[in-house]
Structure formats: structure tokens, C-alpha cells
């Protein structure tokens, strides 16, 4: 059982973080156009942010200080500024939009890769991993990546802004610009300290939040128990404690942000402004200081500091991204692959003879579930597997369907190793009818056809008719186009079983593998199902797990399994004559058949 | 604005906090007026011959330092007050909701699924706390900063220029509002697309075996890719609208700047204002951007908060149908049980689940109930446990109608082992002493022994301290059932109900548990519902249920003699036992 891990309670080592970071960044490579475009727009935007105050400065120093502005000049500068603003708006739009689209496409790529990867994994993986956690990796964790990449954008935007502001200040007044630069180390220390401190607080907060939601969820699900045992007040008290803990961590986060985020950046800005104005003040005593220069310079000082808040605020997303990334890569790097065929396997099944030769199998490689299974099913013959739950019946099917790799021994089809057939051929020629008939969202047709577009509507109707599923389908409001909701809950298990038969029949497999349903099905449907099974088996090699022994009386070979071994074998008559386990079982069911 | 009124109880409760927060906002706004004015004054002074005198420079810079430090302190103040207030509101509402959940009846939980209730307790509360945080901030910040800045512009610079310059600003609020609405709609579609993606993934994972069987991995992946493509298209719209926010602001503010350049420039040239005043003015304009923009967003915050508040209030307004009588009996229930139900149907179901189920169970006796899935066994227990009160008939415990007891008096007398044996993610020991935390470790172990799970527990890595659930040990169905039995028997309840509680336990263990129960609960009443007849064969009376009615009743021997459904089942199960079907499905 894969243990559920709260990624928030585990701190990931620095090296691994760096690794995950690099790997996540590699997904942006496919969208160079979007990301590159966004960065160009960001650079141009930084340029515009430098240019606009320059326009004002020029206007002030050349036309306002000496009061020489004519109406034309006024309007001209107005128009120039308007044009500049228009450009700025354009750059802003493209910076945000292109980057967002790059992120979107990048994260969807991760989704696609994850999904495709899932289909290469073996059944073992799905046995061990809760479905909910897999789904959450594919959908929620990938979602986090957009914010993660956005951190990069805000860092770059911040960098552009700092550099461009500094360069222009340096050009305007080298000495005074160095005064501003002197604040940079302080700024870096603040950023470093904030990122260190806030990440701790943030992690703590997330941990508490997940604890809170787990408690909430569990209390709702377990409400029956809580109420029956009159534990409402205790559970409420416990919840309140967690609720308070979470509030405390949130307050700590608010305090951290209030102390170290935008207010402190603002304070630094104010102090830098004082330094700059002091320097200009002193200079003005010696030479003339133009109004526009002071205006522009102070604006640049603001541009120098402003993006920092945004950047620091986004740092927490960096952590979210790393955590999500570690979980995503955990799946992408999983090697619990589905069993592979031999390289270059390309044989195709023609007659459908099946042979097991001394096959052993263990799910975990240690505890054997099948021991030394040997039998032959000649083309067109039926081999039935009987035995109680856990005797190994399903395991035989699981290894034959290549859901799991078997251990020692050989499985031959048409006298050739099963691994020599291409997977496509195996899937086409081996038709498995599952015990629980899973239904997909869609309609009846799509549930019979699945994704095989070569199957025509006529074939679907014929298949349904063949297994007598048409009886209930024709009664549905939209017959073959009747909607199937999630899990097919609106159909009875018998009806679902029939659909599942039709699903198999329509692909016309050479070999049929039946896992007979044990579910309670009403007698009328039951007889339809039995008839359906009889029809499907005609002319096909069949390996059947049977619970109703009456259905396999005519089997060519019956294998009685116990604890992974074949303990009896023979035809119905032979086994009855033996008066062994099969005999007992048959007697039991016969009694059952009489009374049911 | 209705939402503020709905939340007024909270603001009243926290009036000091919010008063202080708003005061700090006011102080920030006032202090914020200083730098533009100081810069403007400095500009004018520097433009004089000989520049600015140090004696004039220093006080002005001092003022700036004061403004900087003041801002830091006041910002810290309001952030703590207002964001803290929002967090506290969320917490308060969450507590309320949780306590409400604890009180609600089975009907409530039939109507609302866990996922929905979780969504209310997370998303809706988040939207509401946003009103108390960002909502309050935006409202007051916009008003205060807007007003003070405009006053400063009029006083320190020029009223005509101010009037013209702020003309485009309402447009900012309007645009922010409209974009916000469209974004909200687009976002809802994006959410729907996300759900679809989620459902698709869920379905593929659940149906993985079918997909593998039919070799449709590639096709399923292609289908997923198509859904992803669709998602990208929808998110494109969201990103587009989202990317419009900043440019729109820039453009509208651009108009203001252009007006300032043209008309302000004219005023400077005509000596109506100084150039320093113009510099101040430009600064003031930039501090108006946020408040105006925020007003537009305010409406979205309030709307969402309002809708969420209504949903939560609606939940809180639902009442449990299970009501204690005013003079309810508080003494623990004990004695004979008389169950006389003529008819019971679940709410919103016209078809009766139980019809004419009558039995009397004398104190100390054991009743067995058998029948197929859906025969109505669990329903009998639900009525006994007062999960539903609305039925035709009467149920008595110790000669009193069960409705006459307090819930505490009734339920404390009953130990219930449900079919789905839900366990909590805490330690094994705490799961067993779930109903009475004061039980000691030896008592816990006794209960575990009685339920034949003690040895299993000792095998766990940390024994009784082992965590159960997702983060802890994964238990087999049988272990879960036995823990659930231990949880119910630890208080030696007057009435023990086992609802198909031994289905995953093998025959030997079942016999052991039943044996223990007979010894430990010699004078106590027990009801056992089961599919396996060996669980009930020793009962004083056994009811066979079919479609909600009793079709056979009597002791084991009587029922065998009766040669009906029970006898058939018995023969069948006995044979099964012989064949060695130890592991029952």
C-alpha cells in the first residue's frame, strides 16, 4: 500500500529541489515563442517605464521651467505621452497574455505526459495507488505549475525594472544613482530573510490547513459514528483546537507579511528617496537642478523598489511548485511498467490454442499465488476454472491477459510464447469479459464501441442483439444514444453485464476470457446472461471463471483450484465420479438451483 | 452592499479591531500625502537661485523620514487588524458550520454530499472572509485615500486641474467592474472544463482494466488530449481577459496624465501653479490609481461573498428533524425493546422500506435478523438509533417510547457496529475508546480481546499506538470490522447492534467473537443482523426479512423445522463451509 504523504510535513533537500526546479523549467522549452515573446514584451515594458518619465522630464525642463510652452507644444507632448501609454498598454498585455498561455500550454503538456505515462504502468501500480491520489497528481498538482512559472516572470520583471531604472538613473546622475544602489544589499538581505522566514511560516500554515480539511472531511464522513457514540462535543472541541491552530498560523503569516513584505519595501523606498533628495538638495546649492530631473529620478527610485513586493509575494508559489513537481515526477519516474512483449514481437494469433506450462506467479515476487499451473485449451474448447475466492482463478486470467508478468514457466498461444505476439494483436484476439462491468460517461453506443472507430453502428446493434441486450436498450428513451452517467449507475448490474458482453462480442475475439459475475442478478436477467454467455462462447477458445457450475457442465476441461494449485482436473462427469471437491461444490449448487 | 449588513454582527463584535484598522488606513492615507507635497516644495526651492538652503532642506527631509516610518507602522497596523479580522471571521464561521454539521440528521446528509459540504466549508468561507478582508480594505481605502488625495490636490495644487484630471477615473472603476464580471463568467467555464478533465482522469483510472483489456491506451490518451485542447481554448479566454486588466488601467490613467500634461502645463506656463506643484500633482494622480481600480473589483468581491454567505446561511438554517422532547427522560434507557413499525419510507421515497415489522426483545435476549441485501435490516437499526423519526408505529425501550428519552440517554445505551465500519485517522487505541476517552489501556485491550483483534493489533508496528487510515497502517476488512466491534463493546452497552458486522471475518474468528459476546454480555440485549446464518443461529429469536417484511420468524431449530428460506440457506451455507470457503467474499 502506497502511503499517503503530506508533502507539507516533509522538507525536500536542497539538491533535490534544484533538480525538480530545473526539470520543471525544461517544460517551458516547447513554448519558446510564448515565453520568449513575453520576456521581450517585459523588456520593452521596462523600456517604456523608463521612457515615459523622460518625456515628462523633457517637457518640464524645456518648456515649463522657462514657461515657453505653446498650445501646440502642450498638445504635442500630450499626444506623445498618449502614444507612449498606448505602447505601454500593448506591452503589458502581451507580457501577461503570452506568459499565461505559455504556462497554460506547458502545464497541459505535463498533464498529457502524466496521463500517457499512466497508461504504460502495470496493474500493480493501480492496485497500490489510491485512484484519488493519481487523479490529484494529474489535475491539481499540474495546476500549481502555472503559479510556479509565474514566479520566474515576476523575478525577471523585477530584474528588468531594477536594471533599467538603475541604468537610466546612472545616466542622469552617476553619483546619486550609486546612493540608490547602496540600498540594494539591504534589499537583498530583506528578500533573503523574508524568503527564509516566510517559507517556514507558510509551510506550517499549509500543513495546518491540510490537517484542518482532513479533520473536516473525516468528521462529515464519520458523522454517523460520531452521533451514535455521542461524541459531537469532543469532536467539535478537537476541531476547534485545529481551527485555532490554523488561525494562529495564518496570523503569523499575516504578521510576517506585514513586517517584511510591502511595508518594509516601502520604508526602504522612502529612505532611498530621502537620500536622493538630500543629494539633489546639496547639489542645488552648487548648480541648477532641473525640476524634471527630480521628478524623473524620484519616479525611477519608485520603479527600482516597487516590483520587489510582487516578487517576494510570489515566492511561496515557488515552494508549491517544487512540492507539486516532486509528486508529479514521482509518477513520471515510476518504473512499475505493464509487462512488455519481446522486442520485435509481431506474431499474430490464428487458431487460438492456449497452453500453460508450469506457470508460477507472485504479485509481490515473494508469496506465490499460482504454483505450477499446467493445462491446454485447444482451439474452440472451453476450460473452466473453479475454486473459492483467493484460490488463484483471477490470477490465471491476470497473467494471461498480461496485466501482470508471470514468474517461471511458459504461456503459449498457438504453441508460441505469448510474449512473441504484439500487444495490439493480443488485445484484439483476447476478449476479456470483466466481472464488474465498468461503464464510461457517454452513451450506450460509445460504451459498446469504446474508442474503436472502425466499429459501425450496425455492428453495435448486431452485437447487442446477439447477447440480447437489445431487449432493454430498445426500451430506453434514446435507445443506443441513451446517456450513460458516471459509472452507469442508472443501469442494473445485469444490464451493465450485457453491455459488457456486447462490448466484447463486437470486437470478435478469437479467445474469450470470462470472469463470471457473482453479483446478485434477478433471475430473469440471469437467464438472459447465461444465454448470452453460451452464444459468445460458440466457436471460441474460452477460459472461464465460473461460479455457477451448471454453466460449465459442457466444458472440455474443468480445473479445480485451491491455494494456487490445481487440485482436480477433468470433465464434469469425470469430476463427479471422483466424488472430491468438485462433487461437493456441485451438490451444493444443485441444491441451491433447486430452491432458488 | 447587502453583505456588509449581513456581516454586521461580526463587525460589531470586532468593532475595536476594525475601528483601529480603519484609523490606521486613515493615518496611512494622510501620511501618504506628505511625500508628493515635499517633493513639489523641494523642486520649487531647488529651482530658486542658489538652490535650497540646508536649513529648509533638513526639516523637509525629516518630514519624509517621518512619513516613511509612519507608513511602515500604520501599514503594519491595518494589515494586522483587517487581514487578521478576515482570518478570524473565517475561523468563526467554520466553527459554526462544523458544530452545525455535528447536529444535523441523516436526512441532511442524504441531501448534501460530503464534497458539497466541504466546498461550503472551504470555498464559500473563503469568499466570505474576503469581504471582511479585501472588501473592507477596498471600501475604506478607496474612500479615504480617494478623498484625502483629491482634497490635497485641490488644496496644494489647483481645483480646476483636479477636476479635469479625475474625470476619467470613474471609467476605471466601471472597466474594472465589467472586466471582473466577464472574467468571472469565463472563469466559471474554465472551472467546468477543469472538472471535465478531472472526471475524465478519474474515469480512466477507475476503468483502467477495461481500457487495458481492449488495448485502448492510445485512444484513451487521444481522447484526453482532446479534452486538454478544449481546456486550453477556454483558458485562453480567461488569460485574455485577465491580461486586459493592467493595460486598461494604464490607458485610463494615461488619459489623466495627458490631461495633466496639457492643462497642467498650461497652468504652469500661465503662472497659475508652480512646476513643483505640477510634480506633486503627478504624484498624487498615481496614488489615485489603486483606490479607483479597487472600487471596480470591490463589487465582485461583495457579490461573490454575498452569494457564498447566502449558501452558508441556508445550510445553517436547516434543522435536524430529530428533536428532543422538552421533558425528555435523561436516565439511561434499559429494559425490553418493543419494535412495532407498521410502515416506514425514507424521505423523498414513495416506496415503503419496512412494512409490519413487529418484534419484542426482552432484556438480556439476542435477536437475529437475516435476509438479502436491501431487505431492510439496516433500516430497523436506523429507526432504533433515531436517525429517522417519521414512521407509522412505535418503538419502545424499557416501556418508554424512544422519542421520550434524551438522545444522550438513548444512544449511550446502544453500541452500534455499522456495516461500513468507518474508522478515524487516529491511533488504534483512540479508535477503540472513541465513545469514552477516559477508558484506560487495560479496558481498551479487554475490548480488543473480546473482539478478537488484540493479537492483530500487537502485530502492528506500534501496537495500540499505530495510526489508522491513509497515513497509517492499512487494515483488512476483517480487522476494520473487529475494531468497530471493539469500539462498540467497550462501554458494555445495554443494547449492542451488529449490522452485518462479521461479514469479512472468517468462520473461526466469528465463532470466537460470538462466544466472547455471549459470555461478556450475559444479561445484556443484542441484535445481530447478518448474511451468514452461523452469526445468528444462537439467537433467541431470528427474523427473516424480505422486501421490508418479516417472512419467517422463530428460533434456529424452529426455522429449520419450518423448511423455508432459512432452512435452504442454512443447508447451502453449511455445504459451503464444508468445501472450505473460509474466505468469504
Helix content, binned percent of chain A: 55-70%
**Reported CATH architecture of the domain at 1-158 and 301-320 in chain B:** Up-down Bundle
User: Over the alpha carbons, how many angstroms does the gyration radius of chain A reach?
Assistant: 36 Å
Helix content of chain B: 55-70%
CATH architecture of the largest domain in chain A: Up-down Bundle
Radius of gyration of chain B: 36 Å
CATH homolog superfamily of the domain at 1-158 and 301-320 in chain B: ABC transporter type 1, transmembrane domain
Q: In DSSP terms, counting alpha (H) and pi (I) runs of 4 or more, how many helices of chain A?
A: 20
Unreliable spans of chain A: 1-5, 592-596
What is the typical, i.e. mean, pLDDT of chain B? Answer: 89
CATH fold-level assignment of the domain at 1-158 and 301-320 in chain B = ABC transporter transmembrane region fold
Pfam families (chain B): ABC_membrane, ABC_tran
Transmembrane segments (chain B): 18-35, 55-74, 131-155, 244-266, 272-295
Domain ABC transmembrane type-1 (chain B): 20-304
Domain ABC transporter (chain B): 337-572
Amino acid at each position: 500500500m502506497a502511503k499517503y504523504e503530506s508533502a507539507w510535513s516533509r522538507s525536500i533537500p536542497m539538491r533535490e529541489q534544484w533538480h525538480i526546479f530545473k526539470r520543471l523549467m525544461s517544460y517551458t522549452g516547447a513554448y519558446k515563442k510564448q515565453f520568449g515573446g513575453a520576456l521581450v514584451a517585459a523588456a520593452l515594458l521596462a523600456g517604456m517605464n523608463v521612457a515615459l518619465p523622460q518625456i515628462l522630464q523633457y517637457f518640464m525642463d524645456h518648456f515649463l521651467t522657462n514657461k515657453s510652452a505653446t498650445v501646440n507644444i502642450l498638445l504635442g507632448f500630450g499626444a506623445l505621452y498618449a502614444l507612449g501609454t498606448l505602447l505601454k498598454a500593448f506591452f503589458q498585455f502581451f507580457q501577461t497574455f503570452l506568459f499565461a498561455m505559455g504556462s497554460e500550454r506547458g502545464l497541459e503538456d505535463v498533464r498529457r505526459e502524466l496521463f500517457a505515462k499512466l497508461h504504460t504502468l502495470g496493474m500493480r501500480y493501480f492496485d497500490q495507488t489510491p485512484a484519488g491520489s493519481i487523479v490529484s497528481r494529474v489535475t491539481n498538482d499540474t495546476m500549481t505549475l502555472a503559479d510556479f512559472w509565474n514566479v520566474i516572470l515576476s523575478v525577471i520583471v523585477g530584474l528588468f525594472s531594477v536594471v533599467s531604472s538603475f541604468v537610466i538613473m546612472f545616466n542622469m546622475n552617476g553619483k546619486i544613482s550609486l546612493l540608490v544602489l547602496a540600498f540594494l544589499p539591504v534589499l537583498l538581505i530583506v528578500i533573503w530573510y523574508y524568503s527564509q522566514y516566510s517559507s517556514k511560516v507558510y509551510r506550517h500554515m499549509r500543513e495546518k490547513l491540510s490537517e484542518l480539511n482532513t479533520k473536516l472531511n473525516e468528521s462529515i464522513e464519520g458523522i454517523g459514528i460520531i452521533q451514535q457514540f455521542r461524541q459531537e462535543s469532543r469532536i467539535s472541541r478537537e476541531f476547534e483546537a485545529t481551527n485555532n491552530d490554523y488561525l494562529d498560523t495564518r496570523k503569523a503569516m499575516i504578521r510576517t507579511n506585514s513586517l517584511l513584505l510591502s511595508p518594509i519595501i516601502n520604508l526602504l523606498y522612502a529612505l532611498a528617496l530621502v537620500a536622493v533628495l538630500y543629494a539633489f538638495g546639496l547639489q542645488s546649492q552648487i548648480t541648477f537642478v532641473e525640476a524634471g530631473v527630480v521628478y524623473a529620478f524620484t519616479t525611477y527610485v519608485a520603479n527600482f523598489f516597487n516590483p520587489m513586493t510582487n516578487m517576494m509575494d510570489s515566492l511561496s508559489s515557488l515552494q508549491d511548485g517544487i512540492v507539486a513537481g516532486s509528486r508529479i515526477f514521482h509518477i513520471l519516474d515510476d518504473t512499475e511498467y505493464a509487462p512488455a512483449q519481446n522486442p520485435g514481437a509481431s506474431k499474430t494469433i490464428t487458431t487460438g490454442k492456449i497452453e500453460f506450462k508450469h506457470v508460477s506467479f507472485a504479485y509481490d515476487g515473494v508469496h506465490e499465488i499460482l504454483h505450477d499451473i499446467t493445462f491446454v485449451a485447444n482451439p474452440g474448447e472451453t476450460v473452466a476454472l473453479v475454486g473459492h475466492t483467493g484460490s488463484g482463478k483471477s490470477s490465471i486470467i491476470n497473467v494471461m491477459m498480461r496485466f501482470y508478468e508471470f514468474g517461471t514457466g511458459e504461456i503459449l498461444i498457438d504453441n508460441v510464447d505469448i510474449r512473441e505476439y504484439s500487444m495490439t494483436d493480443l488485445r484484439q484476439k483476447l476478449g476479456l469479459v470483466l466481472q464488474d462491468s465498468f461503464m464510461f460517461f457517454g452513451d450506450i453506443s460509445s460504451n459498446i464501441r469504446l474508442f474503436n472507430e472502425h466499429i459501425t453502428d450496425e455492428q453495435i446493434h448486431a452485437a447487442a442483439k446477439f447477447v440480447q441486450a437489445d431487449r432493454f436498450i430498445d426500451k430506453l428513451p434514446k435507445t443506443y444514444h441513451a446517456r450513460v452517467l458516471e459509472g452507469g449507475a442508472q443501469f442494473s448490474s445485469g444490464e451493465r453485464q450485457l453491455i459488457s458482453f456486447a462490448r466484447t462480442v463486437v470486437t470478435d475475439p478469437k479467445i474469450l476470457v470470462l470472469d463470471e459475475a457473482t453479483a446478485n442478478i434477478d433471475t430473469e436477467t440471469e437467464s438472459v446472461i447465461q444465454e448470452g454467455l453460451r452464444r459468445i462462447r460458440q466457436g471460441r477458445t474460452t477460459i472461464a471463471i465460473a461460479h455457477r457450475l451448471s454453466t460449465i457442465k459442457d466444458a472440455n476441461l474443468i480445473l479445480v483450484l485451491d491455494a494456487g494449485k490445481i487440485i482436480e482436473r477433468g470433465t464434469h462427469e469425470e469430476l463427479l465420479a471422483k466424488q472430491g471437491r468438485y462433487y461437493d461444490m456441485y451438490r451444493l449448487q444443485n441444491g441451491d438451483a433447486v430452491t432458488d | 452592499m447587502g453583505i456588509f449588513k449581513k456581516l454586521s454582527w461580526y463587525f460589531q463584535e470586532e468593532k475595536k479591531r476594525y475601528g483601529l484598522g480603519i484609523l490606521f488606513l486613515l493615518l496611512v492615507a494622510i501620511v501618504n500625502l506628505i511625500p508628493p507635497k515635499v517633493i513639489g516644495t523641494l523642486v520649487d526651492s531647488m529651482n530658486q537661485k542658489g538652490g535650497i538652503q540646508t536649513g529648509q532642506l533638513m526639516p523637509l527631509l525629516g518630514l519624509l523620514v517621518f512619513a516613511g516610518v509612519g507608513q511602515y507602522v500604520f501599514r503594519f497596523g491595518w494589515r494586522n487588524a483587517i487581514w487578521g479580522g478576515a482570518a478570524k471571521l473565517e475561523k468563526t464561521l467554520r466553527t459554526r458550520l462544523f458544530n452545525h454539521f455535528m447536529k444535523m440528521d441523516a436526512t441532511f446528509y442524504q441531501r448534501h454530499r460530503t464534497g458539497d459540504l466541504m466546498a461550503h466549508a472551504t470555498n464559500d468561507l473563503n469568499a466570505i472572509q474576503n469581504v471582511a478582508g479585501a472588501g473592507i480594505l477596498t471600501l475604506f481605502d478607496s474612500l479615504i485615500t480617494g478623498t484625502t488625495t483629491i482634497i490635497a490636490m485641490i488644496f496644494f495644487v489647483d481645483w480646476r486641474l483636479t477636476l479635469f484630471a479625475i474625470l476619467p477615473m470613474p471609467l476605471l472603476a466601471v472597466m474594472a467592474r465589467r472586466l471582473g464580471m466577464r472574467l468571472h463568467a469565463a472563469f466559471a467555464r474554465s472551472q467546468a472544463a477543469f472538472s471535465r478533465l478531472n472526471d475524465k482522469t478519474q474515469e480512466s483510472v477507475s476503468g483502467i482494466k477495461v481500457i487495458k483489456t481492449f488495448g485502448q491506451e492510445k485512444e484513451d490518451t487521444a481522447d484526453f488530449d482532446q479534452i486538454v485542447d478544449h481546456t486550453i481554448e477556454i483558458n485562453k479566454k480567461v488569460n485574455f481577459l485577465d491580461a486586459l486588466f493592467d493595460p486598461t488601467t494604464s490607458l485610463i490613467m494615461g488619459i489623466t496624465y495627458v490631461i495633466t500634461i496639457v492643462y497642467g502645463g498650461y497652468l504652469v506656463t500661465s503662472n497659475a501653479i508652480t512646476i513643483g506643484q505640477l510634480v506633486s500633482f503627478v504624484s498624487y494622480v498615481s496614488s489615485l490609481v489603486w483606490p479607483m481600480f479597487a472600487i471596480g473589483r470591490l463589487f465582485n468581491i461583495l457579490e461573490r461573498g454575498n452569494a457564498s454567505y447566502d449558501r452558508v446561511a441556508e445550510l445553517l438554517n436547516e434543522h435536524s428533524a430529530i428533536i428532543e422532547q422538552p421533558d425528555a427522560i435523561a436516565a439511561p434507557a434499559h429494559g425490553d425493546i418493543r419494535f412495532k413499525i407498521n410502515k416506514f419510507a425514507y424521505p423523498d421515497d414513495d416506496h415503503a422500506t419496512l412494512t409490519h415489522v413487529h418484534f419484542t426483545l426482552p432484556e438480556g435476549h439476542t435477536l437475529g435478523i437475516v435476509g438479502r441485501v436491501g431487505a431492510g435490516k439496516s433500516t430497523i437499526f436506523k429507526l432504533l438509533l433515531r436517525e429517522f423519526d417519521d414512521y407509522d408505529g412505535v418503538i419502545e425501550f424499557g416501556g418508554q417510547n424512544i422519542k421520550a428519552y434524551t438522545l444522550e440517554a438513548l444512544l449511550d445505551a446502544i453500541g452500534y457496529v455499522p456495516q461500513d465500519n468507518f474508522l478515524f485517522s487516529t491511533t488504534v487505541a483512540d479508535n477503540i475508546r472513541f465513545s469514552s476517552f477516559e477508558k484506560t489501556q487495560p479496558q481498551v485491550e479487554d475490548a480488543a480481546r473480546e473482539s478478537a483483534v488484540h493479537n492483530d493489533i500487537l502485530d502492528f508496528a506500534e501496537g495500540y499506538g499505530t495510526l489508522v487510515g491513509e497515513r497509517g497502517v492499512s487494515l483488512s476488512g476483517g480487522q476494520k470490522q473487529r475494531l468497530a466491534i471493539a469500539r462498540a463493546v467497550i462501554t458494555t452497552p445495554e443494547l449492542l447492534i451488529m449490522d452485518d458486522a462479521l461479514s469479512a471475518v472468517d468462520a473461526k474468528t466469528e465463532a470466537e467473537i460470538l462466544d466472547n459476546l455471549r459470555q461478556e454480555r450475559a444479561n445484556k440485549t443484542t441484535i445481530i443482523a447478518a448474511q451468514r446464518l452461523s452469526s445468528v443461529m444462537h439467537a433467541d429469536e431470528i427474523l427473516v426479512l424480505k422486501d421490508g417484511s418479516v417472512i419467517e420468524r422463530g428460533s434456529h431449530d424452529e426455522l429449520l423445522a419450518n423448511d423455508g428460506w432459512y432452512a435452504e440457506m442454512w443447508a447451502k451455507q453449511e455445504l459451503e463451509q464444508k468445501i472450505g470457503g473460509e474466505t468469504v467474499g
